[in-house]
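Review form for a predicted model. The reviewer records the input and the model, then writes brief findings.
Reviewer: anonymous (R2)
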Amino acid sequence: MQIKNSGVTKFIAAGRFSGSANVAMHQHECIELVLVVQGECGIDANGERLEGGVDALYMLPPDTRHNQINKGHVITDFVLFKSPDKFFTAKARILSVAGDRWISRWISDILDLHKSSDNIAVQADSLLSALIDRLKHAENNSASQQKMHPALVSAVRLIESDIAKERTVQHLASSCNISQSHLNALFRRHFGCGPLKYLQNLRMSYARKLLAEPYLSIKEIGLMCGYEEVNYFCRIFKKHNRTSPGSFRMRNYKK
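Model under review:
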């Protein structure tokens, strides 16, 4: 299939691989993202071996000759698209998206769109644009974490692994083998706030994204963000955003 050059992001195809047989060497004229949903696999990309398990995302630039070597039964989701974004002109690489609900969810949504209809261009292209922005953010975060104190990296990963779970500074510090005062100091130096405020900021950011869609009730969104009492969630949200969840939804719902 010949793909003409274009200045816009354009969806090509998507699908799911499920099995234990290896995938032979092949290449595409477009960009390919491969997300490991289950199991472990390796990819030889232009002679370099990359390996990952669940939540590993392989990013393969155009014309990258690659295979897929599976370690037992593996499920991978793949998306093919073209984009002028220079983010994808670098060599093939792997990014862990563990703890990021949006990247895996949007890839799944693109697959569902592809299955449901042939007339999905606008929706798929919009999702791809959001996905690319999220990937940039995730990779920048990964690079930033390499410069952080190891205990701070561990604490951030623990918090982000489940933002709905209740945390205490004492438990975080103990889990990261560091004193509470030192952990607080690291958070304030790097993020400008303590660990519990960092968690609250993540919860509010997630709540705003969920409120932009009509599918969940405010109570359900509160629960997904770690607040069992809807009234308490509403108070925290209003204090943080200067508006109620209901008002925020009415202004920001994406019709």
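Findings: The domain at 150-252 is CATH 1.10.10.60 (Arc Repressor Mutant, subunit A).
Further findings: The chain has a mean pLDDT of 87.
Recommendation: see findings above.
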